[in-house]
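Q: Can I see a sequence and its folded structure?
A: Here is a first one.
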Amino acid sequence: MTSRTKVRLALLLWIVLAFSVWNVVFDRVLVLAGRRYSHDAVLAARAGQYLRIDDVMRPAVADGVRVASTAGGAIAVFGVSAVWLASRRQWPGTAATSDTART
């Protein structure tokens, strides 16, 4: 496996991790908002009022996108930076020649 292939694989894995974290965080924010709505809707119904789900979930979606994008973006930036730095470092025990010269 060439070093270029290794770098591409590492980048792909970091992007997959960032995407996975984005999905988990977004889902968690929405699940908590749904639970909060269920609780608040029961309390509102007992008081004789009606709580619309759109009033609760629409801001939760916007909040979820913001929080998930921050978390996923931070992971993606860190991962890409780490791979970039690691690909430019001369590691002990490696030759200074390129991979194409070793074929």
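Q: Show me another, different protein.
A: A second, unrelated one:
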Amino acid sequence: MFQKVLIANRNEIALRVIRACRELGIPTVAVYSTADANALHVRFADEAICIGPPMATKSYLHQPSVLAAAEISGADAIHPGYGFLAENAQFASAVRQLGKTFIGPSVEHLKMFGDKLSAKEAAARAGLPMLKGSGGAVATIEEAIQAAETAGYPVILKAAFGGGGKGMRVVEDPATLERVFKLTQTEAQAAFGNGDVFIERYLRAPRHVEVQVAGDGRGVGLHFGTRDCSMQRRHQKIIEEAPAPNLSDDLRARICKAGADLVANVNYQTVGTVEFLVEGEEFFFLEVNPRIQVEHPVTEEVTGVDLIKLQMELAAGMGFPFTQDEVKIEGHAIEIRVNAENPDTFLPSPGLVTGYHEPGGPGVRIDSAIHEQAVVQPFYDSLTAKLIVKGRDREHARIRLLSAMDEFIVEGIYTTMPLQRELLLGEAFRNVTFWTRYVDKFVEERNG
């Protein structure tokens, strides 16, 4: 196991890694920008090193500063958390060139899954169901039109290196495709440094179901059940739950097997998430997130598996401490992302937290890095806390979550909790009749 771990991140995920390291008896090193000098991850790590000014490009994303901190501190491993440098193959390569362990995928797997086209190729080789489409990048409008005809309209035009809903356009007919094709290529080049785009069939009302997976790098892949992340606003998840509700036993089993088969087939060595679109009894490969997910706590709550500790054990070459048959799913867990945003306009709401009280009681978990008098910074992602509850079943978890939200006080800034409360009370959530664009439709109709 590692002698010292540097955490190349901030906020609640940095605290989450610190807690896992403490259980493993591993000292930790926090890095921070000048804006985060008083942050909790700085206070609770064994060591802390300032790596630059507030802007992420000059601190958390500045690779030379992060690598220098690892050298200075004597850390022999770096945990990237999620976001920032977590999926950066260049950074992972630099870490390994320094003789340190990157607690994440290999450079080859980061490249494979960072490119949606190569990810689709790997999934197809592993036998996963794929949406009809171009199968690869389309360079000309003629190729795009032919691929769209093969898939059948409507289709979606996607940037090969896109993410978070960026570089995507739904196309209903050939005329629209001709109008937006070059524009999407140009935007992809500007946003991601690569103008490759591809086409695939567009599902009008799919659910987003993902599988938590892990691989030992020796051809063994395990799954830890499903999560439903269909409650999204502009492709950003706001409510997640495990296991995914209203799936037949056969469909659930096929989805889980597909996720485990993929990571086993490519000899993947760490934790990750395989994402699918589900419509009826059909499911189709979407992408792989080769890192720990924001929503990993709901899986931890229903399996009892500490995914961060597992991530570090796999990175240390220790293999799995259990078999697939020993992974049990019990109860139901739901998570809300408490974002510092106006729930009506969705504008960011940074500032001073003037009042703060966390809920408690059986089955209630808070992953947070804020407190009373904390400052939510304007320089980073708006996620401030995650509220996770577990119940004996889905309805019990929903009621318990609503009760916990009543106790959760965050004053001085706006949060998204009022919107999430509306959604949890709604028929669509209770009856599982939502889909990936349901929240956008709900907000549009609510606001008139």
